[in-house]
Queue: 4 jobs
Job 1
Amino acid sequence: MKKISEFIISQTNQFIAMNKPCGMSVQEDQSGDASLHRIAMAYCKHDLYLVHRLDRPVSGIVVFAKNKKAAAHLSAQWKSGEVEKRYLAVVSQENTADAGRLVHFIGEKKGSNRVAVASQAFKDAKIAELSFEKVAESDHYNLLDVQLKTGRRHQIRAQLAAGGMPVKGDVKYGFKRGNRDRSIHLHAWQLTFRHPVSGELITLQADPPDDVVWNAFSDYWKA
């Protein structure tokens, strides 16, 4: 496992941003495994505040606030939709459009750890929107650059699957085979938000995991 310092993307007096490995939870859960939150607090030697989350099998940027005031400012940006969120997703070459915009209604699916997706509103559902562009191809897969307009649970996973493009390894949402490490090839690649004190616009970027599938597309994020 990497040293804690190798997870850090950026650090200020107000926040710390880390590149979460796939398979690690952002916060404590019933598994008892070490969470990114716990690891980050051990590194900083003081409490940190959750601002947003990523699903356990997803990798990428997670921001923790270092004080309550910063947490309030950052959380407000996430809730208002002001934060620009870009993800990278690996999908099969079948049924992949060159670009598009997906708008659905998403709600909890009772009795399962999944969400339901529909083109029409249903009880307790919320509107979900994203746009995507196919930016690279490998021998077997396509790479999508996804811009998230809203922030619903499992949104990218569920919406891409509904569009016939499930994320590689995501058997929960229809990909045929899982990855051996139970990860999925979805990565929170870029975040743009305002510094909670100065108001300066900040853009953070984190490289995807080092594996054969991701590495086939590395020219895109290294350009």
Job 2
Amino acid sequence: MNIPENLFYTKDHEWLKLDGDIATVGITDFAQKELGDIVFVDVDTVDEELDAEEAFGTIEAVKTVSDMFMPVSGTVVELNEELDDQPELINKDPYGKGWIIKIKLADTSEVENMLKADQYKELI
């Protein structure tokens, strides 16, 4: 199981990479394996300000459809457009080319409430 040490995690299996007040968000390697082959990603919250744990979109796999939740409060500023044609990037590279959204954080201190890699390992 791939759990990079430099990322932050949620109990809902999202990850966050912080770069100043902009964060890149995706789903974890564990989540993509549990979902199976991902066939569609739907995010219609670009330019919306959302609270932590609020749904920002859905991810559809062959087996199921799941909501994706904001790891922290902020405004969705970008969607990974490559996922429109290649949703399988999430299966192949969940922490790289398979990122889902970028958000401008409302409060960077919220990241401190997220799980570190070792805490996420214990969760799963």
Job 3
Amino acid sequence: MSKAVFRFKSFSVVQEKSAMKIGTDGVLLGAWVKTENPTRILDIGTGTGLISLMLAQRYPKAQITAIEIDSDSFEEAKYNFEESPFHERISAMHRSLQKYDSPEKFDLIVSNPPFFELTHKQNSSRNTARQQSELKFSDLIFHSEIQLKSDGKLAVIIPYNSEAEFLDLAEMYGLYPNKITHVKGNENAPFKRSLLLLSRIQTQPEISELTLELSRNIYTEEYIALTRDFYLKF
């Protein structure tokens, strides 16, 4: 069987086995998150390894640890890292966040956390990968806060309608939004995702909106500019 390969400008991603295939959410988070020259990055629930690879491209001095609980996804991410130009700076670990502990803390933690969407078939591996039962928001925030440096930042992409719940939980653990972007598919669609960048600094967050398409497969200049460094098609 030929390998299902998604090619980006600086790396390729094999996605035969991973329950979580490459999607807009991962690309959005990897392209959107920007912080000042992080040297240590943790990618929680790396899936195919996409976000880690994007951040390795953007931050050439960063050492990245990618953890993944699903064995097939872990093996695929490990392969993708080894075959990439950044293989010396990314390591994959087959471990849940709840059982992960690093003696050295992180400048940046990123996660495209699992969540449940009714559009997918019941009991599918994709549903298993996305259900909050695998990684509750409270667990994600609690363990991330422990692993962050004092001036570290947490970046996530979550459903828009879960934003208030997530931010309330984050505040309980002393993390506050510094930047928020609300994402929708087209001008007439409702907001579907929230991109959040949090830290221990309580400030008025920078809030923006992002529309992906003008019409089917015709992308906005905003989305093209955001992802141009990565997508071959742009």
Job 4
Amino acid sequence: MPRYNAPFEIHVHGQVPLRADVGFDALQESLRPLWKYAGCRSLSDGAQSSYEDEPGIQFDAEEHVLQMCWTVAGDEDFRQTLDEVCMNLNEIADTGAAIEVTFYDADFDSEDAPASAESRDDFLMLFVGPNPAAIMQVQRDLLVQDLINMMERHFDGSELGGVVAEVDKLFAARFDALVHSLEIGKPPRGSGGNHGGHGGGRKPRHLH
């Protein structure tokens, strides 16, 4: 059901490339936490944004892309919904993608708000992808873009190769550390154990 007097207007914005075999039914199931949070019974019902001028949640079946420009009224509990959605999108994403989420304080601009009140606005940048490498790649690309945009105010773009190289080293070290941590949990080769399954270990959670 709709949330009246919710403390936030929450805007979700992003574009996620999907695997070619992903259809509407699979996407609807992956996005179930979103449309259920909005009090709807299906993705078709829940895809409309709170604002008519926003396209909402759209599935481009020809290009296999999920596009989101969608606002819903909510509270801090929406963060748990985001965790669930990101985990689900990891399973159907074709490449890494970034999702921007903004919490707008619904009461801050109201006439009843005290003059000394501070806004509770918040901003999150979430990442999804089919594997940690894909997620780190989009994280790296966004960081490099931000750094270049900032530093080009003071330096020519041709001078920034060293900065980009250092960023790549940082992400390479992070990825190597992740791979090493996953390798530690694997049984030694030739030690027997279960075959054709995951054994007693849990499937690692994808980063987001």
